[in-house]
TrEMBL record:
Keywords: Hydrolase. Pfam families: 4HBT_2 (PF13279). Its EC number is 3.1.2.-. This is Acyl-CoA thioester hydrolase. It comes from the Bacteria. It comes from Sphingosinicella soli. GO terms for molecular function: hydrolase activity. InterPro entries: HotDog_dom_sf.
Length: 143
């Protein structure tokens, strides 16, 4: 993920949120600590799904995280505002992968990949067509 220049462009992400680092998000070197960065990605992922669940017919969709990976590219700083970009990078049979990026002052300071599995009554199930269609509309942009 870190070698793909498209992943470092905020304009490539169809879903974005603004985040405000807190004083407690700093480490002893006055940088955003790794736990704070992971929470920023969590917030981006949760808000992405909150928005997705408000689409007609998708309010009952439930998923769980099967894999999470974070690449730290540069130091983050307090109190600089941050932006999180979220986009779908892969859609499989019963799972999909979200690509997330963290930006400060227009610079990508980190990347995250989250694989989510569609949960049915007895474990994973194929992605329903309505969910697949919604995910397709939220793919990471090529431009």
């Amino acid at each position: 993920m870190r070698d793909n220049p498209r992943r470092r462009d905020l304009g490539a992400y169809p879903f974005r949120i603004d985040m405000v680092p807190r004083f407690g998000d700093m480490d002893l070197n006055n940088h955003l600590n790794n736990v704070a960065v992971a929470r920023f990605y969590e917030e981006g992922r949760v808000r992405f799904h909150f928005d997705l669940h408000h689409r007609p017919g998708l309010d009952r969709f439930r998923g769980f995280i099967a894999h999470l990976a974070i690449d730290y590219l540069a130091e983050g700083h307090w109190p600089d505002p941050a932006q999180i970009g979220v986009g779908v990078v892969h859609i499989g049979g019963s799972s999909y992968r979200l690509g997330l990026a963290l930006f400060q002052r227009g610079v990508c300071i980190g990347l995250c990949d989250s694989v989510l599995v569609h949960r049915g009554e007895h474990g994973s199930e194929p992605l329903p067509p309505l969910l697949r269609e919604a995910l397709e509309s939220l793919r990471l942009r090529d431009e």
